[in-house]
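stage 2 :: seqdesign
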């Protein structure tokens, strides 16, 4: 197959243009008709469009490219389908109540979504780019590849299942102060975010494998490693902007309302911290740090 070169050798410009055009198309519909149904759908499906486009233009069919592209397509399709299902059930998105009728504030959300999609797609975009595919790649199945597949599977299951668990809990408990502590939420306050972070880093791990093992060199080597910006941005957004801050507004407190148990009850241990890491992992890390400090103290004393 023939490699297609468009604008630059890393498909950065063409994917940016596609993303801007795609999001503006849906923005025009949403703003004109005051329509929330397609907002998140446009975000998830944009990942699918970029992965298909760059894989088709790459002119190569290395297993590593196919796996990484399929993973981000599977994640994007699942996410957009779930969010479309959820908005069809709820009717509207409360995030836009103060923006829906205001052109520039509403457009600001869509610009933010453009940045999110384009940046988080970087590992797959660069992996499929001509400057990377011109290097011969070793067979898929290295330890790094397998670790990426395992992390993706764990993250995908955790995010998919916990999304449905939370949706069902919210449907059964309309009180915004109620805290979901069932299923994956028994172990951590935000398992869906933890799963999404795992997914993004797993795709990066697969994408960078050829560079890490010395097959891709020079500028392409640096470009592949630079795509870690994608999972880092996703993690930062979930932790500090669009994920935890929005979720914690009704839930950041030391007690949860449980009428069946007589009113306010203390939060479960796994929900004492707002970060998405499982509580057991945090306790283990804390125990390791404590043991390290004690060993240093005992060493000094000796």
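stage 2 :: out
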């Amino acid at each position: 197959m023939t490699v297609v070169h468009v604008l630059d050798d890393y498909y950065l410009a063409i994917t940016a243009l596609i993303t801007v055009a795609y999001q503006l198309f849906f923005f025009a519909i949403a703003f004109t008709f005051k329509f929330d149904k397609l907002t998140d759908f446009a975000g998830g499906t944009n990942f699918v469009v970029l992965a298909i486009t760059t894989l088709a233009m790459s002119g190569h069919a290395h297993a590593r490219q196919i796996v990484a592209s399929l993973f981000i397509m599977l994640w994007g399709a699942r996410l957009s389908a779930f969010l479309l299902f959820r908005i069809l059930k709820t009717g509207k998105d409360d995030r836009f109540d103060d923006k829906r009728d205001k052109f520039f504030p509403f457009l600001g959300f869509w610009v933010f979504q453009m940045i999110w999609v384009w940046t988080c797609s970087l590992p797959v975009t660069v992996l499929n780019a001509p400057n990377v595919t011109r290097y011969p790649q070793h067979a898929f199945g290295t330890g790094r590849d397998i670790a990426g597949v395992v992390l993706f599977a764990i993250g995908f299951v955790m995010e998919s299942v916990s999304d449905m668990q939370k949706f069902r809990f919210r449907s059964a408990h309309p009180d915004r102060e109620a805290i979901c502590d069932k299923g994956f939420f028994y172990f951590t306050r935000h398992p869906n975010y933890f799963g999404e972070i795992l997914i993004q880093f797993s795709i990066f791990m697969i994408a960078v494998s050829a560079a890490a093992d010395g097959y891709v060199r020079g500028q392409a080597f640096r470009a592949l490693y630079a795509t870690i910006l994608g999972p880092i941005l996703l993690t930062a957004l979930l932790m500090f902007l669009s994920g935890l801050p929005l979720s914690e507004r009704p839930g950041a407190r030391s007690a949860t309302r449980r009428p069946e148990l007589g009113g306010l009850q203390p939060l479960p241990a796994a929900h004492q911290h707002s970060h998405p890491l499982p509580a057991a992992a945090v306790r283990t890390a804390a125990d390791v740090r404590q043991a390290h400090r004690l060993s240093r103290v005992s060493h000094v004393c000796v």
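stage 3 :: structure notes
- The longest strand covers residues 255-258.
- The chain has one domain: 12-246+269-301.
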